[in-house]
Structure formats: structure tokens, C-alpha cells
Amino acid sequence: MPRVLDVGKEVVTPGRRRRRGEELRGAICRAVLEELEEHGFAAMTMDAVAARAGAGKATLYRHWSSKVQLVVAALEYSAPEIIVPPDSGDLRGEIHAVLRQIAADLVGPSGAAARGLIAEIVRSPELASAMKPFLADPTTPPMLEVLRRAAVRGEIPVAALTPRIAGVGTDLLRQCILIKGEIPEGVVEEILDQVVVPLLRGLALGGAPAS
Amino acid sequence: MPRVLDVGKEVVTPGRRRRRGEELRGAICRAVLEELEEHGFAAMTMDAVAARAGAGKATLYRHWSSKVQLVVAALEYSAPEIIVPPDSGDLRGEIHAVLRQIAADLVGPSGAAARGLIAEIVRSPELASAMKPFLADPTTPPMLEVLRRAAVRGEIPVAALTPRIAGVGTDLLRQCILIKGEIPEGVVEEILDQVVVPLLRGLALGGAPAS
DNA sequence: TTGAATAAGATACTCGGTGTCTCAGATAGA
DNA sequence: TCTATCTGAGACACCGAGTATCTTATTCAA
Asked: Could you tell me the CA-to-CA distances from B107 to A19, B81, B115, B138, B181 in Å, in that order?
């Protein structure tokens, strides 16, 4: 049952250059990031990415099996870095600096992508493993480093150096942007002063349960 | 330009009963909850809901403007209740009881719906306000009540009675299920003992910053 | 009881997006 | 130079949300 294709195809493909390999993949990843920044994950279409990259849609699917996989690849391509603040001896200030960076990332393009990925996890939980690195890893280590230095100074116990504790601030920020769609002014400081700092103070006490 | 509709319509509608008002809305909401439980939010189609409810798709859209609004209504219809544990004087135990209930809700059908709604917020942040009640309200008040009683007993300061502090456990649980697609064994206790309890202990100290 | 107004059930249709498929021609490697 | 491979382009199939429209059951007022 032959389908009618390309009848009268008259394309004047003017000796256009064709990229391959890393050059091609890089151009596509950059196009993905730009589309993400402009439209967000949901409104980003594969056609738009293909058009912006000057590539064919089939090329996208030849390299990545789905929109989600493509976005994951683009995130890998431009991994946003969290800078560990210099050791100032000011624990609150250092944590504040890390949280501010994380908040900025969540609001920016890579944050939009990450939020979109979380939405996709909701639709297909089996994807969770594929994108775990982009959700947990990049933010926990810098915070752990800040806490480690505080532990060295004796401000907090070594028992406080767990991913759970180091990730509290990040988790709360992420929760905020997921539910509210933004991180309102002052939320970073609210989390810092109502949760993270008192939590560390409580851990410094160690021992007995609250009361 | 007359479109051809219903040519040869031969429907044998056998005097089928037609429901209205609350009966109809209830049947539709139940159908939504069943579809959510079976397929999750994303894979739930309006056609399937209509078919299961024995209703027309137009009827769905006559009552609710979109899939999201319909799911919000279904959640209202079956509002999962968080029971405030009896005043035992055991703060950790009471918090544990509340967190366990919240975790169970997040894993169950209404949790699946809520996760789907969060995914929709990601695609259209303006919807955030429409569903805020279903994300924050149901869980914060019971926890605040538990904390309030602890404050009366003098275990924690009144300053600890903020939504931010009361919601820490819930937020962390929600974050967990969003990212991992599940709440692994032991996570509730991990959050309780590594975060919530030490946090309250730190707040009980009041005053000076950590160190 | 009856007739008009209202709204339910059914279904065809539009629209937009993902993912598939095919093809001509550019590119790379022998 | 010749050949195998992969790109760029775009038509296409498919699916689901939301719309339009028709028939008819139900409600309510006269």
C-alpha cells in the first residue's frame, strides 16, 4: 500500500553544509536550551528545536529516543555549576550563598528544564533513574562541603553530614518553585532562618530528643 | 460552509436514564478517581472518564473547563482527611503519626492526582493558585495543631508555630515522591529523626544562631 | 397533565504535538 | 573516485484535548 510521498518535491537545497558528530549534537543541545529558556519544557516542541538547530526532526530521534531524553542530554551538555563559597567561618553566610545560587538555578533555564523533567517523572516513574543525577547530585556536594568545614571548626557534629540534612534547603526551595511556579522574595532567608539554621543548632546539641 | 454531521445517525438510545446535579457530578468524580488510580494523571483521558461515568464528554466540559479543573474537583470530592492524633504528650510520636498519614496519602490515588496537578503547574504556572488549597491546606493544620499542643506544654516556643516549620516534613515527603516516584521504607523516620526533631530542639533553644 | 426550557448522552470534528517514514543529496572513508 | 552512511526536509499516522451539534430525557411552571 504505497503512500504518496514527496510528489513534486522541488526543494532547492542550496549546497547547505551538513554537520555531524559532536558539532551536530552540540548545536542541537544549544537549540534545546534556548527553546527551554524561551518557552519552558512543556511548550518546547521538537519541531521548534529542529528548526532552530537547522536539523531534521528525524535526526533528533535518531540520536535521542524522546523529548525527555533530549532534554536530559541538553542538561548534561550545560551542567550548571554551584560554586562553593570561600571558607569565611560564617556558616550562615556560606549556606546563604549556596542557597541563593540554587534558587537562581531553579528559576533559570536549567531550572525550567528540571521542572519539566519532574513533570515527566510524574507521568512515567521509570524515568526517575535516568534523571536522578540532575536533580540531586549537583546541589548536595557544595552544601556538604560547607557543612564539613563547619564540622571541622566544631560548630556542628559530624553526624550532621548526611545528604538528607545537607539537602533540606534545596528540597524546600525545589518544593516551593514546583508548587508556586516561582521563588518569592524572602523565601530563601525564611528557609535559612526558620529551618536550616535552627536545625543545625539542634543537631549541635546532639543527644536527647526535643523537649 | 455546512459541515456534514450525524449523517445516518442510527443511535438506539434505549430510554437510558439520565442523571443530573449532584448524582451526576458524584458519578463523574468517582470515575475520575478510578481512572487516576488505574492510569495516573497523564494517562487518564477525558474520553475514558466519560465512558466510565457513562456520560458525554461535553457534559464534562459543561461542568469543568479543563482536565485539570476536573481533577481538582474530584480531589475536593474525596478530600483525604488527616487525623490529628490524640494528645499523648509524646511529641515525636504524634508527629510520626501525622507524617505517616501524609506519606500514605501521597502514595495513594489522591497522591497520584496531586502529583499530576503539580506536573500541570509546571506547564502552566497560572494554575498554581487554583490548586493551592489541595497542596498546602490539608496537611499543614494537623501538624500545626500537634505543634501547638507541644508549645502549650512548653516543649517548643510559640515562634515555632509557622507554616514553614510545620510544613517541613510534608515538603520533604512530597519532594521525595516527586523525584523518586515512591517513598522508600524508612524515609519517614529519616526525615523525622534527622530533620524535624532536631529542628524543633534547635528552636527550643531559641536565641543565638548555630554554633 | 402538558409543553417549553434545560441539560444529558452521544459522536463527529478541529487542532496541535509526538514520533515514524521516506527520499535526495552531502559527507566521510577506502 | 566510488560507495556506504547519515543529514536535512517534510509528509504522514496517531493520539488526546477541547468544541460543536444533534437527539432526547428530565424538570418545572402553567
From this structure: 47, 14, 10, 15, 9
